[in-house]
Design brief:
Strand content: under 5%
Number of domains: 1
Largest sheet: none
Number of helices: 4
CATH class: Mainly Alpha
Order of helices and strands: HHHH
Shape: globular
Number of strands: 0
Radius of gyration: 12 Å
CATH superfamily: ACP-like
Length: 85
């Protein structure tokens, strides 16, 4: 992933992953969507999502960081922080 990705590009890629890999309806994919409540992902899905995001970004996240994530916007912020370093 290039260091020049915008938050919008990151959000779009995460949405693409959720649509294609997790069969989440596109209409549910909003920045304030709660990963567990709104998108109905469980802890195993969250681990799979983290793995897909790490593949995409070529960056590793600490378990503590990922535990803090609740919304799609949170995912974007963490990923943007890592690729901007």
């Amino acid at each position: 992933m290039a260091n020049s990705c915008t938050k919008e590009e990151i959000f779009n890629k995460i949405c693409e992953i959720l649509e294609n890999e997790f069969e989440i309806d596109k209409s549910l994919l909003k920045e304030d969507a709660d990963i567990f409540e709104d998108l109905d992902l469980d802890s195993i899905d969250a681990v799979d999502l983290a793995a897909r995001i790490q593949q995409y970004s070529q960056k590793r996240f600490s378990p503590e960081e990922f535990k803090q994530i609740r919304t799609l916007g949170d995912v974007v912020e963490v990923l943007y922080k890592h690729i901007s370093e």
